[in-house]
Every structure is written in structure tokens, then in C-alpha cells.
Amino acid sequence: MPATIASPPLTARPLRCRSCGTERAAAPTAICEECLGPLEPVYEPGRPLPDRETIAGRAPSLWRYKEWLPFDGDPVWSLDTGFTPLVDAPALARRFGVARVWVKNDTVSHPSLSFKDRVVAAAINAAAAFGLDTIGCASTGNLANAVAAHAARAGLKAWIFIPDELEAGKVIGTSVYGARLVRVRGTYDDVNRLCAQVADRFGWGFANVNLRSYYGEGSKTVAYEIAEQLGWRLPTAVVAPMAGGSLLSKLGKGFGEFLEAKLVHGRSPRLYGAQAAGCAPIVRLVERGADAIAPEVPQTICRSLAIGNPADGVFAARAMRETGGWAAAVSDSELVAGIRFLAQDTGVFAETAGGVTAAGALALARAGRFDAQDEVVLCITGHGLKTVEAVHGAVPEAPVIAPRLREVTTLVEEERTWPSR
Amino acid sequence: MAITLNLPSVLAAHTGGARTIEATGRTLGEAVADVAARYPALAPRLRDKEGKPYPFVNFYLNDEDVRFRGGFAAPVQDGDEVTVIPAIAGG
Q1: A303 three-class SS
Q2: Chain A: residue nearest B12 by CA?
Q3: Chain-chain contact of B90 with A200 (C-beta, under 8 angstroms)
Q4: Which chain A residues are within 8 Å of B67, Cβ to Cβ?
């Protein structure tokens, strides 16, 4: 039995199966006992919803949208996560041949520099609601960083499982918080299978296993923020990276909920997903027009998206098809180029998943998926300092000089004669 | 061929609480058919109506996803361990 903490001041919403519709009371479980389909929180349909002015007057965090998050009562932890900048990117608009581009800049997400702070803010409050004192996850890195950071602030124990070959920033950026970090020989899919068994055995709150129904709802706040930051309107297209596929699916849900609440008008943006070609089961699902994932063994430097058996792949593909979007896979060299042009065009340094998103958007533009009137948002989900290995060797080496003016003069003269970089 | 089938707790409700079941067959599909015949309540959570793997579970043969081994056609040997894991997890 899990240990408990003091009686929590908030409660989690009840759950309903997305596949068979069976309802159940709130619980740290993500699977329908009847059909094993995914459970989702049920919201009270007639609940009072805030208007634009009320939302705009609230604190700048993802909890300003609390009526669409799966709790009753006030959240107790991670109150300052969310509301990251939406950055105008005219150079990217020129590059893609569209009217406008914005970067939804979750590289500066608080506290762990990736969009996983959003889902963990939801998961850790679910852990509070259920009185769990230990939280965990299976992770390709960003979620590990987020669970470790949020657990440290909340004073919870954390057990975090990652593939053994992750970037140094992802490993150190987890263990520094005092989490119990375990490196598993194998791929993320091996880690994920193990964590399903661990959660079943030990009763801990695994963010993306048994707390997954609550955790996933945090992703919707990306959509809400985009709508509000554009002045309560929707872009025509959104491009996001895909690992398990949950973000794509929840973007669609989030935009749909704001349309339903009449906070915005028009039609949902076309949703586009990007993966690395070395692990692109969802892209291939979209291209095949099929209804079941064919799992892959990942072979890419983009470890944060290296999920060969994505749990939400089918739902992500459906979100892309239903909104008129599409999917793109890019090579490792294209994703490195994507990291560089994103940094040079916008000042945003993204990790490998951001390179996939930027390069994927360029591939979609070249394939004629956008038109000149399009207003496109790129979801850039993690900071580049987490995966410096990816660009090491791809960026110019800095010269080392003596502290003498004439050496700088030489460099400046050389610069004048160099072709543009 | 005798193999061991490990079940998650959500499925043990259909086996009277047993989480480990012995099964026989030359392939995974035959072993699953053997279990399905003995535990009719569990059967629809292992196979769909067409006899294919139920979409909300994944089967692992000695820790390897059986979709890389031919699915239910994967041959099994004495002592093999098959683990059933709910498909909705992770990411």
C-alpha cells in the first residue's frame, strides 16, 4: 500500500473510458477495467466558465485555465508553471512562405525547461489529491527532469526510470534534484513496459502510467495559451513534435474546448505532427491511412521523441486527419539544421525535438502543405542546453586568441573576406 | 510446450486473482487460445473477435514486443515467459 500524506485540500475529477464510455470514480488508474481503454477526466458540463476578462486577470500560469483542468478545489503544488512566451518569428514566416509564424516557447518553461512541466503540474496535484507520497515516470529525459524538479519542490519521493543512453543534461538534470534515478538497459519502450509493471506492483503515482488520465490534461494548456496570446483567436496551423502522440491529441482537445466555450471563434487549426525519420511510427500511420501502429526500434539522435510504440499514436493520427493536417519525418541531419535555423531566425535554442519540429515545418512548407495566408504556430517543447551533444560539431568552432587587440583586428579582417555563413 | 503467462492486476480480476498462468502451445496464438478456453472471461481481453491480439494490450515474449516476432504466429518454447501489459501507458 502507498504511504499517505495529510488529507489533501483538492479532489480529482471522475473518469470515463474514451473507448467504451464506462465511468468510474476518481482514482490513480488510467485504464478502463472493462475494456482496458484510456480513461479521461469527466468535467461537469454545466459548470460556470470564466470569460476572457476573468482569465486575463488571473496569475500568469497554466492554472488560469483551471476550469478545464481535472480537479475541484485549488491546486496545491506547481502553481507557477505555464504561460510561456509566444514569440513572433517573421524570419521563419519568410523561410516557410507563410503570412505569420510564432514560436510557442516552452524552452523557458518553469521549472525544468520543457513542456513536460505542464503535464507534471497536473500529475503532481493528482498525487496530492490521492494522498500519494511517491511519484515516478518512464521518460526519454524531459519528463524525468520535470518529475524530479516538481517532486523536489513538493517534498515527494521520486523514482524515475530512463533508457541508459540519454544525453548528459537529461541525466544530471534529473539526479541533481535528489530523485532516485534508474537507468534501464534498452529503449524507452523497454523502460515503459517495466514502469507499467512497477506501477502495478508498488502503487506509486507514475505520472505517465497510472496518473496518465490527469497528467495528459496539462498538455491542453498549450492550446489555451496560444489562443489567448494571439488575442483570443486561433492560428490556421500548428506544428508539434510527436513522441507518444499525446500532445497532438490534447492540442486538438484544447482548441475544441475553447471553441465550445466561445472564447474563440472560427475553426480549429490544422494540426501537423513531426518525428525523426529514425523513429516515425505515427508519421507512417498517417501516410498509410491505417488504424494501428506498427512499432519501430528507434534509431535517431532525437532521443526525446524516440518512442517506437506510441500509446496515443492512433489518437494523434486522428487529430491530424480530422483537422486537415498532416505529418512529416525528418532525418537527423535535417533536425540538426532545424535547431540551427530556429536559433538563428528566432533566438530560441531548442533541444532535438525542437529541431524536428522546425525541420518538419520546413518539410511541410516545401511539400505545399501551407499557403501564403497561413498563420502557423510551432510548439517548441524543450531547451537546447539539454541536448548540446546533438549540435556539437555542427556549429562553428570559436577561435582562441591571446588578449591582444591585433588578434581581434585579424579576425575582423578575416570576417570581411568570408562568404556569409 | 509449457509457457508462463504474466497478467497485470486489471486482468487478474478475470482469473480469480491469479496473475501467473501456465499455458501450452507451439505458438503464442496457441498458448493464448489455451488460456482463453480455460478462462472465458479473460478471453476477450487477450483476443479480438477476429482472433487477433486485443488492441488495448501488448504481448511481450521474454521481454520482446511480439509484434517484432510475428505476433501470435511467434513460436514459443518450454520455459518461455509471456507478459501482457496494458497498451495505454507512457509518452
Answers
A1: helix
A2: A33
A3: no
A4: 294-295
Q: What is the pLDDT of residues A168-207, one digit of tens each?
A: 999 999 999 999 999 999 999 999 999 999 999 998 999 9
Which of A15, A31, A213 is the mutation pick for testing B, counting most B CBs within 10 A? A31
Helix (H, G, I), strand (E, B) or coil at A323: helix
- Cell readout for B84 is 501482457
A·B CB contacts under 8 A: 78
In CATH, the number for domain B2-86 is 3.10.20.30
Using DSSP, state whether B61 is helix, strand or coil: strand
Strand order in the sheet with A327-330: A86-88, A100-105, A375-380, A237-241, A270-276, A327-330
Mean pLDDT of A75-103: 98
**Cβ-defined contact of A245 to B87 (cutoff 8 Å):** no
| DSSP-based helix, strand, coil % in chain A, nearest 5 | 40, 15, 40
ipTM of the complex: 0.95
Whether B91 and A311 lie within 8 Å, measured CB to CB: yes
Taking the domains of chain B in order of start, what are their residue ranges?
A: 2-86
* Cβ separation B85–A189 shorter than 8 A: no
Q: CA-CA distances (angstroms) from residue A357 to A54, A125, A243, A315, A420? A: 33, 30, 12, 19, 26
User: Over the stretch B11-44, which tens digit does the pLDDT of each residue have?
Assistant: 999 999 999 999 999 999 999 999 999 999 999 9
Buried b (16+ CB within 10 A) or exposed e, A180-209: ebeebeebbbbbbbbbbebbbeeebbbbbb
Does A197 sit within 8 Å of B56, measured CB to CB? no
Model's pTM, two decimal places? 0.95
For residue A35, the chain B residues in CB contact (below 8 A) are: 45, 56
Nearest CA in chain B to A193: B85
